[in-house]
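Teaching note: in complex prediction, the entire set of molecules is handled at once rather than each chain in isolation. The prompt given to students was simply: 'Predict the structure of this complex.' The entities are:
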Amino acid sequence: MFELLGVPPQVLMGQLLLGLINGSFYAVLSLGLAVIFGLLNIINFSHGAQYMLGAFVAWMLLEYLGISYWWALLLAPVIVGATGLVLEKLALRRLYHLDHLYGLLLTFGVALIIQGLFRNYYGISGLPYQIPDQLSGGQNLGFMFLPNYRGWVVVASVVVCFGTWFVIEKTKLGAYLRAATENPTLVGAFGINVPLMIMLTYGFGVALAGFAGVLAAPIYSVNPNMGADLIIVVFAVVVIGGMGSIMGAIVTGFGLGIIEGLTKVFYPAGSAVVIFVIMAIVLMIKPEGLFGRNA
Amino acid sequence: MKTYVLGALTVASFALPAAAQDAMDVKLGVLNDRSGVYADLSGEGSVVAARMAVADFGAADKGLNVEVISADHQNKPDVASNIARQWYDQDGVDAILDVPTSSAALAVADITAQENKILIDSGAGSTQLTGEQCQPTTIHWTYDTAALAKGTGGAVTEGGDAKWFFLTADYAFGHSLEEETSKVVAEAGGEVVGTVRHPFPATDFSSFLLQAQGSGADVIGLANAGGDTVNAIKQASEFGITQAGQSLAALLMFITDVHALGAETAQGLVLTEAFYWDHDDDTRAWSARFEEEFGSKPTMVHAGVYSGTMHYLRAVEATGSTEGDVVAEWMKANPFDDPLFGEGYVRKDGRVIHDMHLYEVKSPDESTGEWDLYNLVATIPGEEAFLPMEGSGCAFANAG
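The expected output is the structure of the full assembly:
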């Protein structure tokens, strides 16, 4: 049996698969960021808090209303997306004509407020959320034990990611959206309600974060800081993929998950920084990102 | 006219009854994490515990006028030092309580000794507090990493799980916890078959868990804390690691963490604590009162603040002083029999010696409520649980 740098192939296969699973989270989260940046030019720093909201809403639905994971998967993104609509309508809308920095500061402030409120009410230790019965257990793949739930995460993310890409890049609705970003006045002149469309787009991007939060609730600690820890990595993913590139966000999300997974085998202590090292290299060689359209 | 009124008031104030004038002012400062990772296990709960101790001691009836104040040190040594100095120099604080996060606790211990006040630490885990960096005015009440390593490491190894694999948070705390536990494991006849250092903090542990699974170890020791431990356990259950026969040992875990996991996920987990609310009638009664005031069950850190405050007030009453050296000497000379920690005493180096308990987390079938989480496995007598004073590196305690 051959070994690669002292690592047996079974272990390597297992780690590749795990990387793909983590990549799923990166992909869904960075996709939301890319949609918002690409179509609204807003750097949405509250994305991590909105991801956390998704997980908390799922928990609340179960705890207070007895609503199961499957309904939460549908309802929580809608609820979190609705909070996004309110945020856009009340605040973000006023910042579109200003520098990116203002949107960044506003969303960052909103994130701190949301996290602070949840910390105050629910504490920092986190809340329990179980894997749904239908997805507990796992499959023995020979080289590793694959929990059913993780398999589900990959499938769900791939479907959502490519669905989103398809709508934005290949449908008439997507064409309107892209046109509205290029020239809102002209698109408005054709009788399309541009502000509404922009608002719904932000809501959709936020709903994606909420969706990732529900996916994460059964396997990661559900606590107010869960998004703050992840969001920095996700921003690095977006920068590597190219700000605003939908396909770039998806492909780099999955790809970096795999690279990070491999680092955990060969040099575990470096796994926290590998994505940032790659980001630095990409920024030096191709500042617009791997899939960026323009600098 | 004004002058006459003032004059009359001044005379009147001198004529107040003697008892009120003799009341001794004592100010206690609870300095801990009120917003970060340790906010649940210390935080406001420790303030509630300190106030309960003041009320239960009957301070007002005993001529002590005790005030409890609090502040957030944000787990930063510099912030903790500034607050401690301000409290001692300007606000008239006589003793600081709790102080989780070892680096912050060590900083406050130094200042406390310089000012000749008292630090009763409940939340921090470093053995340094009563080791090389010990101070005559430091009392380390609840636990330390050596006692946790001894309890969990020793009991698990002697129970037949001799091969250990460590999942270690890659910073000073994780390394020292791993090192101390490795020593205990070796002494008990076990061996360490592997270690993986994970970044701090980390969200995904699946990769590291898979490495642990492949190592052939009997038990996976989690040398990390808080959210890292919770995530690691949640994912170990998901990847069928415990079901496949490997067990998990959490080396630093509080009941708030277990509560966050739920019995379903945490069942079978072994851990060491100094205090559990459901231990006996006394702890149940006190915890019920605490829950009424605070809204959730107490952690061992909260319990330590309560008992420490009690013992401190006894010392102040007996000596009639709040001078650090005088109070510390009385606290060390007089053993206590405490409703929460049982019989114990403060050793010369400031280490409080009391029993530690090894618990196993109940299965959901056994658990009758959200806080009904532990079965007692073993009680480790205080003398065995904590490191001996000789060789601890504490200079003043070993001097003569």
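Point out the following to students. Residues 13-132+152-285 of chain A form a domain with the ABC transporter involved in vitamin B12 uptake, BtuC fold (CATH 1.10.3470). Residues 48 and 241 of chain A are 18 Å apart (CA to CA).
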